[in-house]
Design goal:
Distance between the termini: 65 Å
Oligomer: single chain
Largest sheet: 6 strands, antiparallel
CATH architecture of the largest domain: Alpha-Beta Complex
CATH class of the largest domain: Alpha Beta
Keywords: Hydrolase, Protease, Serine protease, Signal
Protein name: Carboxyl-terminal processing protease
Shape: globular
Number of strands: 19
EC number: 3.4.21.102
Family: Belongs to the peptidase S41A family.
CATH superfamily of the largest domain: 2-enoyl-CoA Hydratase, Chain A, domain 1
Pfam family, one: Peptidase_S41
């Protein structure tokens, strides 16, 4: 596939604006860096001459590139080979594997989140889990690409994962059967009382249009008018900045959606309502946005915009806290640089970097039996090594604890299971919307 097609697909995986890398800008080097380049050349020459085994230039050059980018932040990186192939996978829309979003952390494979309904999700793999062995073979220290390639495979075949779950004393094994993972970014469900739920799993191409279609399909299925909407952005790692703007614009009729500020010319951009979709498709109906620690980047743009404009009540847990924009800079025909080029800000001027979006109503996921244990090891942007610092500064105690003891949230997972409640956060959002639906408000006013 031509690189141009892959470059266009970058919107599937990062909040990205495509910026051409010019020869002139690449050639400009601060004169004061000359001494540092001499050190680099000296190290290169010593390795070539004296390292115990011969080392090829490609290995050393790639190491230098990776080292430079690792010194910046966790989201900048060099893409080629299998990394670009993953972009092609996103274009194709499906692959055969487990359905996991993972990162490398301290040499191990850490789960960001399983895709909803995927084999990994059904098997019980959770965000924050560490995968240490595949089919009994240790993968700690192995390249992430190699581990991901091993987890993918023919539909119907099984693989055994050894899981270390923070909060548990011992690792455990899970056998997961591979399946075809359909990258379905938007799904919906109509709940009792004509309350709709739209689940956005990632911000890939056409998410704004897909949400609009989901809304129209729900209206057609409902018996009467829809009385409220839950926009579920939990465990959504983000994606296209443009699609985050489009989704927000579905429910806003005026004002700023998001702005971004960077150092390079052209990186200071503001996005406003009524530029993608006209009007509020839900007509001002009561609305809840659900977020959690896995809601990142584009998810935080939407939650922040709807919260700042008081269009929706944000519920759940404090979000991940990724407030940066990555741009894809082509490097020849088969490689690219993914570089952090700007920070973004909500309509009120708030940066979510490190601190995330605070929900209006903090609702713990009480239906998770491992909630208390896993909360101690929850990973967010502020926990990533080398993360960008919020420009206004945030006190540690402001981001360490999400909630205090609340008398409303004292039920155990076992008690909720007996009541048939499998997803407490969703249950609480639905109950809130039922109490505030126009029909119920009218009934109470009589």
């Amino acid at each position: 596939m031509k690189f141009a097609a892959l470059a266009r697909s970058a919107a599937l995986v990062t909040a990205v604006a495509l910026i051409p890398a010019t020869t002139a800008s690449m050639a400009q080097v601060d004169g004061r860096a000359g001494a540092e380049f001499s050190k680099v050349l000296g190290v290169y020459q010593r390795i070539k001459a004296s390292y115990v085994d011969p080392v090829d230039d490609e290995t050393l050059m790639r190491g230098m590139i990776d080292g430079m980018l690792a010194a910046l932040d966790p989201h900048s990186g060099y893409l080629d080979g299998s990394d670009l192939q993953r972009l092609e996978t996103m274009i194709d829309g499906n692959y055969s594997g487990l359905g996991l979003s993972v990162v490398a952390e301290d040499g191990a494979v850490k789960v960001i989140s399983p895709f909803r309904g995927s084999p990994a999700d059904i098997a019980g793999i959770k965000a924050g889990d560490f995968i240490t062995h595949l089919d009994g073979r240790l993968i700690v220290g192995q390249e992430l690409d190699e581990s991901v390639a091993q987890m993918r495979g023919r539909e119907g075949t099984s693989i055994q994962l050894t899981i270390f779950r923070p909060g548990r004393d011992e690792p455990f094994d899970l056998s997961v059967k591979r399946g075809v993972i359909e990258l379905e970014p938007v799904t919906w469900e109509l709940h009792e009382g004509n309350i709709g739920q739209i689940m956005v799993n990632e911000f890939s191409r056409d998410v704004g249009s897909d949400v609009f279609t989901a809304w129209e399909e729900m209206k057609a299925e409902a018996t009467g008018r829809i009385d409220g909407l839950v926009l579920d952005l939990r465990s959504n790692p983000g994606g296209s900045l443009d699609e985050a703007v489009a989704l927000s614009d579905l429910f806003l009729t005026e004002g700023r959606i998001v702005s971004q500020r960077g150092r390079a010319r052209g990186e200071n951009i503001a996005y406003d309502a009524e530029t993608v979709f006209r009007g509020d498709i839900a007509g001002g109906l009561p609305m809840v946005v659900l977020i959690d620690a896995g809601s990142a980047s584009a998810s935080e743009i939407v939650a922040g915009a709807l919260q700042d404009h008081r269009r929706a009540v944000v519920m759940g847990e404090r979000s991940f806290g990724k407030g940066s924009v990555q741009s894809l800079l082509p490097l020849g025909r088969d490689a690219a640089l993914k570089l952090t080029t700007a920070r973004y800000f909500t309509p009120s001027g708030h940066s979510v970097q490190e601190g995330g979006i605070d929900p209006d109503i903090t609702v713990p996921q009480l239906s998770d039996p491992d909630l208390a244990k896993r909360a101690r090891f929850q990973m967010r942007e502020s926990d990533l090594r080398g993360h960008l610092i919020n420009e206004i500064g945030i006190e540690d105690d402001a981001v360490e604890k999400d909630a205090r003891d609340d008398p409303r949230f004292q039920q155990t997972a076992e008690e909720l299971e007996e009541q048939g409640i499998e997803d407490f956060q969703l249950h609480y959002a639905l109950q809130t919307l039922r109490r505030t639906s126009p029909m119920n408000i009218a009934a109470r006013a009589k």
